[in-house]
Specification:
With 294 residues, this protein is mainly beta. Helices cover 11% and strands 58% of the residues. A hairpin with a 2-residue loop joins strand 14 and strand 15. The N and C termini lie far apart (87 Å).
């Protein structure tokens, strides 16, 4: 048994109690780790590798900065459960209770996607579940563009394989930033829109829902996505030849097969209605644009 171990540095103070290999542990381990405040990278160094190993590995690889405003980790594993955990197998739900909060984090969500900065999030991890709530973050894009990410929730309902996760969030900001996001390496093959963000003005407000299978062989093609939202006060230079799209309000929808835009605006000063549909991962699509002539 170790009643209390304290590890302190210039900007952290970590306390740990527990036992290892005792009769009460059934040859396993019991830990209680408390961290009131510390740099996120320092916290990850003290997170035991056998505890919620998949979550830990993802954060080690992708959380590059930020401050943990509080973390509590309590786990009690028998020898068999400890072996299962080390082999990346799920453990009973009640054997792990991990809570944490991160402020001003910097996270690389996945290869080809823009970096998230100013991440404010809190999470709860148990033996079988994960839930991380992102109150806000900034999606950093080229040419000093960005989108605000709010009301985000990442969840794993069951850690037992095959493991599936969900991610739901809202994106708000300038329409040119949304076009830049759709042109990122991870998305440009899915939503093939050939529009220069520099020619776009307006506001975007989009709700996104993702289904993500978790596994080492997962690719972008395995991710399911839906999105709904609006583009308002939209203008696009050279939308139709030399004519400009102006004052458009469009409803956006993405489902399993297609990307659609519907709404109204003006082309060359004339009122117009729009109904555009493009298949995902394809150049194939159709558009109906109706002008109202006096």
């Amino acid at each position: 048994n170790f009643e209390e171990v304290r590890v302190s540095g210039a900007d952290y103070d970590i306390s740990l109690t527990g036992s290892l290999g005792t009769v009460a542990d059934q040859g396993g381990v019991s830990l209680d780790i408390s961290i009131p405040k510390a740099p996120a990278r320092a916290v990850l160094r003290f997170w035991p590798a056998f505890v919620a190993s998949d979550v830990r590995r993802y954060l080690v690889d992708n959380l590059t900065d930020g401050t943990v405003e509080g973390m509590s980790l309590k786990t009690s594993l028998t020898s068999d459960e400890l072996l299962a955990s080390r082999n990346k197998q799920p453990v009973p739900d009640e054997t792990l209770d991990l809570t944490f909060a991160v402020k001003d984090g910097t996270l690389r969500p996945a290869d080809g996607l823009p970096v998230l900065t100013q991440v404010n999030a809190s999470g709860v991890v148990t033996g079988l579940t994960t839930r991380i709530e992102v109150a806000q973050a900034e999606v950093k894009l080229p040419a000093n563009r960005s989108l605000s990410l709010v009301d985000g929730v990442f969840a794993v309902a069951d850690h037992r394989p095959p493991v599936f996760s969900s991610a739901n969030f809202q994106l708000r900001g300038q329409a040119d930033a949304l076009i830049a996001l759709l042109g990122s390496d991870a998305l440009k093959g899915t939503v093939q829109i050939d529009i220069d963000p520099a020619k776009v003005r307006g506001q975007a407000d989009i709700k996104v829902a993702l289904g993500i299978p978790l596994g080492k062989d997962m690719s972008a093609a395995d991710v399911t996505a839906t999105a709904t939202g609006s583009l308002t006060n939209l203008s696009v230079d050279g939308f139709s030849g030399k004519d400009k799209l102006e004052s458009a309000s469009l409803a956006l929808n993405v489902d399993a097969t297609a990307f659609t835009l519907k709404g109204t605006g003006q082309i060359a000063g004339l009122p117009a209605t729009f109904d555009m549909r493009q298949l995902l991962r394809s150049n194939a699509g159709e558009a109906t644009i109706s002008l109202v002539l006096d």
